Amino acid sequence: MKRKIYSLKMKASALALGGLILMGAFGETLHAQTLGDGIAAFSLQDYEQAHAIFLPLAENGDAEAAFRLGRMLESGYGTAPDQEAAKGWYEKAANAGHELARQKLSDLEGLQGQEANLKILEMEAAKGSPRAMIALARLYAAGNAVPLDKKKAHELLVEMCSITTSKAMIDYGRESLTRMDYEGDACR
Fold first, then answer.
1. Domain boundaries of the chain, sorted by first residue
2. Closest alpha carbon to 125 in 110, 139, 145, 142
3. Could you tell me which CATH class the domain 34-112 is placed in?
């Protein structure tokens, strides 16, 4: 009787081990694909696989996956270019806070004029984007697309310096303020 129980335990163990081995062999089809898997497939120019990975991620709210789908559709990677479909994915990504998607969406909507770009920069600067603050400061300092307003440029650079941790941006802000004859060290 003990031999029979031992034999059954061995068979059960062997079956469990075999199941684990099979899961390992076919595990790739059992686990969820990640954004990194999609990026890797895209890098290998396996656009069909990249699309298959990005799509469910984007449908489940992954802003980066939605942005990458938009880029694939806009440029025609693995398919004919489809501006309207790209616009839809850019909108989904932009609504989730993806900054590059907002910019791409602006381009696709034909808002390439300086006035539209200025509105986007102002919106991004208001949200605390140091890059948008620098871009706006440049425009105001030169009077390009906006009235010349060195005070506004100064305010934007000082604000940018107060919120960024990037040494390069702080150095840029300090240098720009120096060129604008600002006395003091707003950019620590």
1. 34-112, 113-188
2. 139
3. mainly alpha
